[in-house]
Fold:
Amino acid sequence: MITLSVVWKYLCSFFKREWSAEDYPIRVRHLDSSAADHTARWKPFRVDAAVINWWQMSGGGETEADAVKDLATKLEARKARGERLPRPGTGLPIEFAARGRIEAHHRLAADFAKRVLGLDISDCFISNESSLWDFQADEDNTLLYNKIMLIYGVDVSDIENANLADIFDRLAARGVSG
Structure:
């Protein structure tokens, strides 16, 4: 059944120049949220809607309609940013986020990962878009901000979204090299 949907959407795509969520073959799954961690920061979705053959494009919600609407919003946002949408029925390879800003501070990043996050830099992926939020599940970043202040003597609590590249830039500007 999925194969027919994929083939049908693929063939229909040749009659349009621009595609929207309705043009893609979508798989909807109802998730078991009873076993999930229900902290206030993390609220599990009950339903997941993903584009078949492009699994990294998905949406979530409380109902099927919510999940499909979230998926459509993400597709439209990608289109608005000028990013390529694959032909329905096909997909895109997984793309890793840029790391140039992190690589510019490679020694500091390794030191920070070990001393602040408790990780070996080779066991994690930190990109220019990574944030302290990606490495902890607390309600806020207060503990990590305090740890950074204690270790490096620099306040980074005002950095928007707790972006690690921005944090590394500030630490480096204050003479911290790792």
